Amino acid sequence: xxxxxxxxxxxxxxxxxxxxxxxxxxxxxxxxxxxxxxxxxxxxxxxxxxxxxxxxxxxxxxxxxxxxxxxxxxxxxxxxxxxxxxxxxxxxxxxxxxxxxxxxxxxxxxxxxxxxxxxxxxxxxxxxxxxxxxxxxxxxxxxxxxxxxxxxxxxxxxxxxxxxxxxxxxxxxxxxxxxxxxxxxxxxxxxxxxxxxxxxxxxxxxxxxxxxxxxxxxxxxxxxxxxxxxxxxxxxxxxxxxxxxxxxxxxxxxxxxxxxxxxxxxxxxxxxxxxxxxxxxxxxxxxxxxxxxxxxxxxxxxxxxxxxxxxxxxxxxxxxxxxxxxxxxxxxxxxxxxxxxxxxxxxxxxxxxxxxxxxxxxxxxxxxxxxxxxxxxxxxxxxxxxxxxxxxxxxxxxxxxxxxxxxxxxxxxxxxxxxxxxxxxxxxx
Length: 429
Ligand code: B12
Hints:
This protein is α/β, with parallel strands linked by helices and 429 residues long. It is 38% helix and 17% strand. The protein is globular, with a radius of gyration of 22 Å. It starts with a strand and ends in a 7-residue tail after the last helix. Bound molecules: cobalamin. Residues 7, 9, 21-23, 26-27, 59-61, 63-66, 86-91, 93-94, 107, 110-112, 114-115, 179, 191-193, 227, 229, 361, 387-388 line the site of cobalamin. Cobalamin binds next to helix 2, strand 3, strand 4, helix 5 and helix 6.
């Protein structure tokens, strides 16, 4: 049986040589381990490769913003190949009721075992029907003009049992993606991680080290981008990993980037991070206003923590990156100016790598708020959910603006335009 797996939305060939999406990589590795020679699974770098492979089954992975492209591909594949199309990824996980007509089955959240069950059903029955899908956990599907959403699949307890993900990358790759945990213990109002991954689960330090060594030996990877929502969520494990990296001299061969949260920072931790070869840290700063920050990320974090992290990164020569978000319900003009001043004050020490509009995504508490306040349009065009003010597709007429009560949209736009000038931000494609 032939299966093609494709992540929707990639245009650049360059990025594929280095950074291969891990979601489809985990699926591919798991299905190969379970079915071995019974299936021929290919991860596609381009849409055209699907037609060349001529699979019996297509698996698509998509985020919210590119879901319209997923729909178009599914339609085309149905027309050309008449095969079942299964869709997974963050969007359908949070919004199963949006399953498109051209997609047969949506897979919600952690996908490895659900994909396995679906492949097995197809192998046995040669088709998907209501009677062979009704008991399958973690899926949604069409049945008599309705979308049925089955109960959730339990999360995998021991994620070390999963194989290393397949990666379609070349040798000497840079910023190779690595995942060392699933989920995040915090609940930021704009993030769907809890909905997606449930309680946070960690790979053991040993497993993390063996995957890093594999990337060094197998691919001669030059740098690794640790994509975990929060690599430092379990400090004990972080120290164990840092120590092993140094003891095995891995830090002499490879550098790392990772995501941190400012309230977890101490000098000892940053020193250890530098010691293991982390030369870039990224954190969700979001705002320079303390009261707003607490609203976004909870009471345990403050702008002082942000400052401490930035100062420590500066001291230990670690590059520090952070995104900022504007347009939160309740944000005042004074809050926006505080954020501007915070960014200006840290010029040279902090790189702003996200200048975002507060966009409600399904699966977040912000989405729930927007629904309750009736701030969502009747019909949402998902491709308009561009949150990046600097993206040339950002369209002020189409955004979902949640803060009209505090700052009217036209004044908000003026402030954002002024911020672009004050902070010397340039638009990009
Ligand atoms: C790496 C990454 C990227 C990479 C690769 C994206 C990708 N599609 O893999 C790049 C840099 C391209 C990227 C871009 C963007 N990203 Co991004 N990204 C991530 C990040 C940090 C990790 C993704 C990852 O590898 N996860 C680990 C794997 C194991 O999980 P997974 O991909 O979800 O796959 C599992 C399941 O979903 C499921 N599954 C997935 N696909 C399929 C398919 C089938 C058939 C089945 C059965 C199962 C299945 O099984 C997998 C294994 O369990 C996540 C944050 C996160 N924690 O996930 C954000 C995240 C996915 N990105 C996000 C966003 C907003 C974006 C951008 C829109 C940013 C922007 N401003 O442009 C763009 C979208 C462009 C695009 N084409 O996708 C949001 C998505 C929100 C949403 N509702 O869609 C996330 C969740 C961050 C967040 N918390 O808000 N991103």
